[in-house]
Amino acid sequence: MDKFIINGPCKIKGTIKLSGSKNASLPILAATILFDEPVEIKNLPNVKDISTMLDLIKSFGFIVKKNKTNNSVIIKKKKIKTFASYSLVKTMRAGILVLGPLLSKYKKAITSLPGGCLIGARPVNFHLNALAKLGMKHKIRKGYIYANAKKGLKGSRIKFPQISVGATENAILAATLAEGTTILKNCAIEPEIKLDLTNFLNKAGAKIKWTGKRSVEIKGVKKLKSVSYSIMSDRIECGTFCVVAAISKGELKINGLNPRIIRTEIKLLKKIGAKIKTYGETIFIKGPKKIKNIKFLETKEYDGFPTDLQAQFMALLCKAKGRSVIHEKIFENRFTHIGELKRLGAKISIIKNKAIITGNSDLEGAELMSSDLRASVALVIAAIASKGKSIINRIYHLDRGYESIENKLKKVGVKIKRLS
Ligand code: EPZ
Q: Fewer Cβ atoms within 10 A, N terminus or C terminus of the chain?
């Protein structure tokens, strides 16, 4: 298994080009199941979760032609079967997103339950309840969902009991070809949904209209037309690199993302003392000499502080002057990075889903273990600010969601190398 060696502390200066958003690519790739015509998707990040989703789509009988030069694919329908195997879905939770489109287009699907992961049980009840309201009949046996909609899906009014990114995406995908109109309330409004997924489907002839902050109306259509679409940049990757600059008194120019999309994160980075200037789709960030603490920070659904940046900010706050508290409110077990940060000398205690970070830690390089995608990148960030050598094991977790992160980091001054 690959590992990273990082020698810190590192002087950070340079430019970062963001990759396409993993969490926008996954629902948009699942949406290609809705098409009869060829679809081109550009600016896909070259990460494991995307290749897994492409394998899943191929397993349904689609032809996937990759163009490595510009990270694009052309997906063409061939002979269809509607079975999503456990071996593919178990490694990537987003596999559940094929259920809605398979039902909407082919009226049946057998897909594996995605299974939990380290950060939580991650049930799919909101997905199944929403699809049932659209006419899905299903039973669960031996870890598989056997679903069908003999008369096709019919539009309905659905109010999600809790905000869920995946359930919102699945319902939008299912409603796209359903008969009649679907109204979804209490939706997740991440930009990957409200901007990218919506724009992609509407460009192909879908009729999706956001009628309120968390309400969307989808008028079912018969067919979608061939389309070419370029994925938005990855806002979590952008936030991650901003933290790299903030923790290391570094200076980064980050290209490719409309800064409005991460205005909450930018406000927080200014609060800890970073200097940030933005113009067009460029963000300039200069890390502070002294990092200020954040008395209380809680993760929220968009447009609140994202849970996918919680671990990264925790690494940063280990170096802040004074105590900070982070309350993880989205997932039940998203503190696996704490044990590893403490191996570097961080002083953090946990009370239920709150982490109390003492701050002012002199971090010293150590051997570390990655656990999930964002926890792993938090270890990279802390290692960059630690004195001496750190070894980060099991970086396959990182490869799931960060495209060639070591090359991007090396280019801006991080002394990092990958050992296979
Ligand atoms: C998406 O996961 C993202 N993944 C996650 O990013 C992100 O952390 C999460 O949204 C929250 O923003 C992708 O987009 C591929 P949810 P998802 O449904 O859709 C509970 C990363 O690092 N829930 O919004 O699974 C759930 O357990 C990943 O890129 C139910 O109880 O998140 C969680 O506690 C990690 N029943 C909460 O809701 C359901 O049916 C939010 O989950 C669905 C969810």
A: C
